[in-house]
Predict the structure.
Amino acid sequence: MTGEPRIGDVFGEMLRDAYAVKTGIGPRPLAGGRLPRPVIEIIERDDGLINGAPAAHYLDEPEHWQPYDHRAVDRVRGATLDIGTGGGRIALALQERGVPVTGLDISPGALRVSRHRGVRNLVLGTVDEHAADDRRYDTFLLLGNNLGLIEGRQRAPAFLAALAALARPGAQVIAHGTDPYGTRDPVHTAYHELNRRRGRLGGQLRLRLRYRELGTHWFDYLVCSAAELAELVRGTGWTLADVDDRDAPYYLATLRRAP
């Protein structure tokens, strides 16, 4: 035994169990073999920090959303790609509004949950892989803090190029981000400084997810300020058209392509 997790579909297994606890559909994880056990997402950072959070929010109905989620979906227009669709909470709401929406995710298990909940159009893969398909969109959504999928300076140009390949003229990206620099927590401020010494953006996280005996590979996930985002998109064909920071430190960033 190595003490290391087995690499697997962490997000999919976690959502399957959270959905079973929420609905009673499927075998539920039980504590002591009797009581429903809370489904907790474990996030491990490369400096040793470990955080945990209930996974149930990935399945929230609109009445339980944060205000910025409502403002984001109100900005949607045309054919929409929900990137990192997870349990399909955003895609379902848009579908009910009559929006032509496709959910994209790299987790087969998450897509199974989304399909069971009623999301009709789902694609397994990354944005780069989907860019090879003959599909075009007017709106791209990166909600649930999924601006982080840009990863950092090295990945941002390729990620935004993949979106551009999928974009119709005048397309928009609506992304939820978090400004990481308001904290005074020394655990986080020290990590920002460590990142800068390594030539990375301060909020560029190196993470892996854990659930039960499973883990993901280590990956980068970007938490950045709006000013840093503006630098990342410069010269990519996308422009930072609007920043809604009414719920600071959370913000909605709207990127636009030239018409």
The chain has a mean pLDDT of 94. Residues 150 and 156 are 5 Å apart (CA to CA). The longest strand covers residues 167-178. The chain has one domain: 62-205+217-257.
